[in-house]
Amino acid sequence: MDSDTASHRKRALRAEIRERRQNLTATERAAATAGITRNLVDLTTDLSARSIACYLSTTIEPDTRPFLNWAHTQGLRVLLPISRDDGLLDWTTGDGETETEGLYGLPEAVGELLGPIAINDVDLIIVPAASVDATGMRMGWGRGYFDKTLGSMEKCPPVYAVLFDGELVDEVPRERHDQPVDGAVTPTRIAQFT
Prior knowledge:
This is 5-formyltetrahydrofolate cyclo-ligase. The protein is 30% helix and 22% strand. By secondary structure, it is an alpha/beta fold. It has helices spanning 3-22, 26-46, 65-73, 145-152; strands spanning 51-53, 77-83, 89-92, 99-101, 107-109, 124-128, 131-133, 138-139, 159-162, 168-169, 183-185, 190-192. The longest helix is centred in the N-terminal third of the chain and has 21 residues, at 26-46.
């Protein structure tokens, strides 16, 4: 598939997913949050992860905050991303509470900047996704931050995308820069692709 076709298909799929997510009821969202939190806790525990990289979810993404609260109470080291103008991610440990609006209006933690290489020391990376296919190919939201980060790592720990049920599909459009994930966490399951 040529790059223009893949890019166009991605835009259309992202719009469809955004609309579906915005139409979730409060009850559906609460149930999804409970399932995702339970599965993220199980995954982290099963991997004996002591240090994780995760993101602060937006209002239409699966809610990662209850999981992050659990991680803080367990004494895990949690790195949170800070978007940079050059397309890379800085990281901070933040305080688990204080947030600000980052680039593109996305929520970001407030804390000491640790630089892009801080992620090299984590045991588990949890990334956002619009969709993931049966081979583990991840389609993000189009800015490429996580693709650049994952593509630049020499020794990458397990990477799991978080999404709603129904966003695990047979195939997503892919471009050369896209990076696969090892698994996906939904409200009802933990899928592994490796």
